Amino acid sequence: MLFQETLMLLAASMAVDASQALMPTPPMGFNNWARFECALNQTIFTETADAMVSKGLVKAGYDRVNIDDCWPLHERAANGSLQWDPEKFPNGLIWLGQYLKNRNLKFGIYSDAGNLTCGGYPGSLNYEEIDAETFSSWGIDYLKLDGCNVYNQGSLDSEQTYKNIYGHWHQVILNMSRPLIFSESAPAYFSGEANLTDWYLVMDWVPGYGELACHSNDIATFDTPNPWESILTNYGFEILLARYQSPGYFNDPDFLIVDHANLTLDEKKSHFALWASFSAPLIISAYIPDLTDDEIAYLTNEDLIAIDQDALGLQATLVSQDGTWDVLSKSLSNGDRLLTILNRGDEAGSLSVPFERLGYPSQYSGIFVVKDLWTGATSEVSNQITANVPSHGTAVFRVSSRLAAIPTGMIFNTASLNCLTANGSSVRWTKCTGSDTQIWQITSGRSISSLSDLSKCLSRDAKSGTVALEVCQGWHKSQKWDYAITGNVQNQASSDCLTEGQDGVVTLVECLVENNSQVFELPSGSLQR
Ligand SMILES: *[C@@H]1O[C@H](CO)[C@@H](O)[C@H](O)[C@H]1NC(C)=O
Ligand SMILES: *[C@@H]1O[C@H](CO)[C@@H](O)[C@H](O)[C@H]1NC(C)=O
Ligand SMILES: *[C@@H]1O[C@H](CO)[C@@H](O)[C@H](O)[C@H]1NC(C)=O
Ligand SMILES: *[C@@H]1O[C@H](CO)[C@@H](O)[C@H](O)[C@H]1NC(C)=O
Ligand SMILES: *[C@@H]1O[C@H](CO)[C@@H](O)[C@H](O)[C@H]1NC(C)=O
Ligand SMILES: *[C@@H]1O[C@H](CO)[C@@H](O)[C@H](O)[C@H]1NC(C)=O
Ligand SMILES: *[C@@H]1O[C@H](CO)[C@@H](O)[C@H](O)[C@H]1NC(C)=O
Ligand SMILES: *[C@@H]1O[C@H](CO)[C@@H](O)[C@H](O)[C@H]1NC(C)=O
């Protein structure tokens, strides 16, 4: 497919009107998988539902209970419908759905795109209409469709095969009088490759077909060691995908593993704060009746839930990254700005972030009102925010001012993870260090300037055809760049795309479809829809 053609198709599939969206903000609730895997039963779900009410989770917005794999019998009924396992669910799923409804909880279920689920139970391939109808008749409104055992004539599981099956499901769901919320696991089957093309080709269609997508690894289950590494791994995949998210479609970095034995409270709070900063699904996979007061306290933090559920639905993006500190930001629907600071280091530490790095004008010396979302304390601050953050902790602040913020932060290649770096009048792709030379402002006029010298704009040099930093001339097309959902950054004068060439050279090359050298993440808000 031609590049322009791809873009036009994507633009059409992405045109989701937030007010019409089935799910304008990310889901919140419970799923049994990471905590119980296949050892599930009715009691877990009834006890969980009761505890979600009594511990205030329902009141805080957690309104879903989702069953994962291993719930059905191994055989379908004579008429082809799936059947719940009556040993695991003695009163049945219709009864359980009613039990949840009586507690203001919605009911979600799991199936698989292929002919078997990951756990070896019947999959939905060729039973899509029947299964959708069955789930609906049980009072279910949410389907997670996994992607195990998807075959293409017995062998290759290609991107196109997944697209056909998930696309068919999309049609089936559109036909329903009460459409299911559709959680697509397809991208997870293409993540983690050195060649990112197929992963991104899948990501290009999932937002058009459903409301959320598990994009990478399953998060650590209760019985796996090193959950902090697992959280950071999924965080690392999530930050490559911010451009895909908007109200009605959410990237899913997987469950909140609140009662994992090998996480510290600071790590659990980080997990929650990072997921909330992403406006990610907040789906708890833990034994909720036994959660501690500390755990319930952070899960029900109203300020952080408001960040997660913000109407803009933006995913926070990286302002800077230096190996120890990750700084992220995004805009909020009331004009406020979020600042999130993750300390990856093994020691507690302190970091100051100037307001300029949050997208506010550098000349402005006025006061910002800053709320610490962990303590709830509000203070008036000028110039910069300083945070003291424990090892593996995350500080989160909500910044209010009369000024509008400009999208500001790193521009990085999602394959090499190199940062666009200014050096005088030249640019290169280099290791990210957190320097001002790697922090870029993207104006509404589509120009791109580094904080190290805002008088210069990223330009196509007409003589050499390469990329340079030249004195900004607001109107000039050689200094205007369009950022597409595919990750391409296209120059308006030449229609070529920003590229990472050999040895970090910045070049302008004919636009390619989801090629490692041309897929970039820009500060959230840079993408025009
Ligand atoms: C339900 O599952 C849990 C966790 O696997 C187990 O501890 C409990 O004994 C089970 N209860 C019943 C009634 O099967
Ligand atoms: C199919 O069979 C099952 C089990 O006998 C039954 O519960 C269900 O209502 C049937 N579905 C339809 C659509 O008739
Ligand atoms: C699933 O599909 C594969 C490949 O087409 C086939 O070999 C296998 O027998 C199928 N399994 C079931 C349970 O239908
Ligand atoms: C959707 O409904 C129409 C009209 O009832 C039907 O012709 C079509 O086959 C259905 N499509 C799917 C994918 O179920
Ligand atoms: C990206 O495109 C270049 C130039 O066409 C090609 O050599 C390279 O193999 C492509 N990379 C990937 C990962 O497909
Ligand atoms: C990367 O994957 C794409 C899609 O499968 C393929 O067309 C391309 O040739 C691959 N590139 C390399 C360098 O293997
Ligand atoms: C926790 O970590 C210890 C080693 O540090 C390991 O032995 C144990 O298996 C881990 N427990 C879990 C539940 O991951
Ligand atoms: C910046 O450019 C100068 C002159 O081209 C070069 O000598 C220097 O190594 C570059 N600095 C960095 C950090 O790349």
From TrEMBL:
- A Gene Ontology biological process term: carbohydrate metabolic process
What GO cellular component term, any one, is given? extracellular region
Among its keywords, does the record have Hydrolase? yes
| Compartments (UniProt record) | Secreted
Name the InterPro entries on file. Answer: Aldolase_TIM (IPR013785), GH (IPR017853), Glyco_hydro_27 (IPR002241), Glyco_hydro_b (IPR013780), Melibiase_C (IPR041233), Ricin_B-like_lectins (IPR035992), Ricin_B_lectin (IPR000772)
**Catalytic activity field:** Hydrolysis of terminal, non-reducing alpha-D-galactose residues in alpha-D-galactosides, including galactose oligosaccharides, galactomannans and galactolipids
Q: Which residues form the Ricin B lectin domain?
A: 406-523
Name the PROSITE patterns for this protein: RICIN_B_LECTIN
- Biological function: Hydrolyzes a variety of simple alpha-D-galactoside as well as more complex molecules such as oligosaccharides and polysaccharides.
Tell me what this protein is called: Alpha-galactosidase
